Amino acid sequence: MRSQAAALPQTARTSARSTDHYSSSGIWIGVFAITMSFAAFTSALFVREGTADWGHLVLPSILYVNTILLLASSGTLELARRSLREEEGTSKASRLVLLTLLLGLAFCTGQYRAWLDLRTQGIYLATNPNGSFFYVLTFLHALHVLAGILVLVYLAGRLAASQKAFRPSLFRSTAIYWHFMAVLWVYLLMLCRMKL
Amino acid sequence: MGKVLAIVLVIIAIASAYPIVAHKFSLPEDISTHGHAIDDQLNDTMIEAGVSFVAAQIVLAFFVWSFTGRKAGSPLKNFPGGAKVPVIAAFVLVGTEVLALGVMGQKAWANVYFTSPKPDAIQIQAQAEQFAYYFRYPGPDGKFGAVHPDKIDEGNQNYFGLDPANEVEARDDIVSGELVIPVNREIQLLMHAKDVGHSFYVRELRIQQDFVPGLDLSIHFTATKIGKYEIVCTQLCGLGHYNMKAYLNVMSREDYDKWLKDQAGQ
Amino acid sequence: MSESSVEQAHVHAPPEGFIRKHVFSLDHKVIGKQYYALALVSVFTGMLLSWLMRIHMVWPTQQVPGLELLSKAGAPGGIITPEYYLSLLTMHGTLMVFFVLTNAPLAALGNYFLPIQIGAEDMAFPRFNMMSFWTTFLAWIVLMLAFFIPDGPPISGWTSYAPLSAVGKDAGPGMQYGASLWGLSIGIFCIASLLGSLNFIATTLDLRAKGMTLMRMPLCTWAWFITSCIGLLAFAVLLPACILLILDRHAGTSFFIPAGLVISDRLQPHSGGSPLLWQHLFWFFGHPEVYIAILPSMGIVSHILINSMRKPLLSAKVVIYSMMSIGFLSYMVWGHHMFVSGMNPMSALAFSFPTLTITIPATVLTLLWLGSLYGSNLQINSASLFALGFISMFVAGGVSGFFLAQPSIDIYLHATYFVVGHFHMVMGVASLFGVFAGTYFWFPKMTGRMMNETLGKLHFWITFVGAYCIFMPFHYLGLIGNVRRYQSFVDDFMAPYLGWHKFMTIAALITGGAQFIFLFNLIYSRFKGAPAPQNPWKATSLEWSIPSPPPWNNFGDKHPVVYHDPYQYGVKGPDGDFIMQDSPVQPLPASRD
Q: How many whole angstroms separate alpha carbon C134 and alpha carbon C26?
């Protein structure tokens, strides 16, 4: 058997991303994993729902205010993304990112108010299963939001520093994550309304 | 060394199969009405599995023997038919065998789980706790007294938390550490876990069912041979798990009636 | 402003200083070795635990010198108590399943070789990668702490069923804090694993070199990729389960604990929870977990076998699709661990059919390996011996699954030694054989030195024969109804079979002892082994195109270009009967019979 010397690759598939070492799928994989975890909590809720001590929870109304804050923060982040595309400087984007994270913090504070509200109703973590699920779901979601806020702080800082200092890939990933937090919250709110 | 591996593989295949083929490890005798279906199923599966195991080891041995230590320059060959052969073989052979076993095995499962106990089945309650079984018979009134977890008092042998002082039905309930049953009568066992998960396993009865705290489970069976058989716990329940056992005491009808009368008298 | 102009040209800077190079390293190769070291420590610890268990079982009055220092309550005078046996059992299972079988085949070998085999400079997220390892290490510390607290490790088994695991100290020794440490450790492990899976998947999807299509990836890379996909879903469910368990234990919630339980004479203050909920959540993770344990070894064995046979498999595509099918089906079968658990008996049948169906891709793989051996030019060395041994072990362990997949038979065999034999054969032996094969094969690349072949072969023979001697009798004992998780057999029923238990114990001591040959070989060869050429096995995948050991950025400043699938063997190449993936040389159309 002889061999021939051919120099062309059999396909011309170029992976520019590989030479830049940029992974666009990473954040989606992370979003998927978080979704699966909350799916597990959801199925636990459905199983637990069947028992005699399942009651009914009156959701604190501040939750709806919090929802609007979180959705607004998604909006401001989108505005930040647009300003980056259209303008030369990053200072407007930096301010919008700061606003986003402040709205996020307001959301978390509002969630804390919701827990205090439940406490005045006498519903603590272990009082009844409905309350348990409410606290667990909202707490874990808020924890993920806080993680996002930490990244937004970093991002706001980099944007304020200079145009060259930030990575667009990080901005993109953060934006996907942040919007996912809003979508997840809307889902959790509906779940709590319908089931708890 | 490839040849050595081939020889060792064949020896291992034969040595592993030998104890099975020579019936050195037989299931304990089957004293149940539903067990023969399980035993048949197990035997059929053993043949399929055993043949697959031995055949695979021998084929591996044969190929290792044939294709190691070849002279340099020996031609490479592909298995005739290529990849199609393993794929088709797997789907056809294994697929049909396996699904057949699965379909056939349904009946044995259904016999145990999809049939209801006969109306005249004797109801006995079994309570599993760390680390003993207790069995309760309804007594001459045919009714079980209610159980109250807060009234459980091991020291005074009130294992079930009965309240005979205030409840009529509880007064004649018979509590026993042994599961005494008459031969050839269907028994319905009402299973209750007092503390953690346990299990009810009688090898000869071909019965195994977990006790699940918070769930009212029941199983039913008929024993066909008089004798004493071990009931052992198979669900890890704590430090005494290894010692948690009771006895299934299968008696003749007359002996069983006499035993009940004696217990009721006490 | 274009995106790529500010993206980094290199994923991270060349490491400087001891800490950056060897401790908090961003280099996937160092991280892979760190995972390997952790798995090595864990497997020897787990093996010692199993020795203690077996010694206690057949020689219950045997003193183990020094054990009383580890646990005064658990082993007074060095003699193991019944409850400590359960602690040892729990820690053995937990260490082996999580810290050995999830770490070694996937996180260790995969971390080291996946980026190289796809032609990448490093993983997609090197910082996450470093965090994954150190988080795993933290989880390991938390777990091992259980040995040193006064009450000792938990006694609820690696499966930690509720309510035994959920009610706290009333349930028994080790259940006050030991079980909490378990829950915390496994929860932390989940997070580490999820990060790891994310990295593997993102890297495989996004960082393949030019010409490296998915179908041109080596089979072990495919296995690591599929395994990571499985792990992403599985660990994402175990984490919530652990959180809920910890809440039940410490916050008074009742996710898993029903009302009316009287434990240690105390009525437990819980109500409404479901023990079966824990089982469903746990096994939804637990069954895919066992495929996480075996799939990488299937890929590694395929990869090594092809090299040893000097001939590709009959079809790499079939192997890939089979592995994918196994991964997919693995999510539909978890209830086969719960046939007699009290769940709806109808669902037992629903779980049984996919379980039986998994036999099909498993058989396809086995027959494909066997069929590929035909007409090959099989080279025997330590790596290929373990690869061949894997096939033998995989069949041996797999056929017992046939029985357990059928609910009617499982009525009899559930929780007997038959189950223990089955999972040890597939996980404890077959999966580890894949790791051994991979170690012997890739050691030269990782260290620049060869392992000692004589010691490697000795290791193989004792382990291969020894493993059969240990685990085949488990199946026989299961057939007669030998119940598992018993610290000793105090009844007449088991008396005739105690001789077999002695036999298994002695086999375990010998086989376990042989693992020290492997350990010695690893350490000795690392420093004194014969220098290895760049491509000692005349192999084709990209890891063999770079120096041994590889430089910090794998391919230097070059980006490899891939021209072939990774199994160009039996062709005329510039250096022999193979052509490397990055070689532009094309073989002539094959004229093979």
A: 11
Q: Please report whether residue C592 resides in a domain.
A: yes
The predicted model scores a pTM of: 0.95
How far is Cα B99 from Cα B105, in angstroms, rounded to an integer? 9
Task: Count how many pairs of residues, chain B against chain C, have C-beta atoms within 8 Å.
Answer: 312
ipTM for the predicted complex: 0.96
CA angle centred on C71, ends C69 and C76, rounded to 5°: 85
Number of domains, chain C: 2
- The distance from CA C381 to its chain's CA centroid, rounded to whole angstroms, is 23
Residue (of A153, A175, A156, A152) closest to A165 by Cα position = A156
Task: Write the DSSP string, B12-47.
Answer: HHHHHHHHHHTTSSPPPPP-BSSHHHHHHHHHHHHH
Q: Given an 8 Å threshold on Cβ–Cβ distance, is A53 in contact with C587?
A: no
Interface test with A, best of C1, C28, C125, C225 (most A CBs within 10 A): C1
Q: pLDDT tens digits for C142-157?
A: 999 999 998 899 999 9
- Amino acid letter at C264? S
Chain C residue whose CA is closest to B97: C356
Report the largest interatomic distance among the alpha carbons of chain A, rounded to a whole angstrom. Answer: 85
Q: From the candidates B41, B42, B196, which should be mutated to test the interface with C, based on the most C CB atoms within 10 A?
A: B196
- Structural domain span for residue C577: 532-593
3-state helix vs strand vs coil in chain C, percent to 5: 65, 5, 30
> Cβ–Cβ of A132/C247 closer than 8 Å?
yes
Whether the predicted pLDDT of A5 surpasses 60: no
Question: Per residue in B63-117, pLDDT tens?
Answer: 999 999 998 778 899 999 999 999 999 999 888 887 788 887 888 899 889 999 9
Type of residue at A37: S
- Its CATH architecture, for the domain B122-265, is Sandwich (2.60)
For residue A18, the model assigns a pLDDT of 53
Domain-embedded: residue A35: no
- Return the number of other C-beta atoms located less than 10 Å from residue A147's C-beta: 12
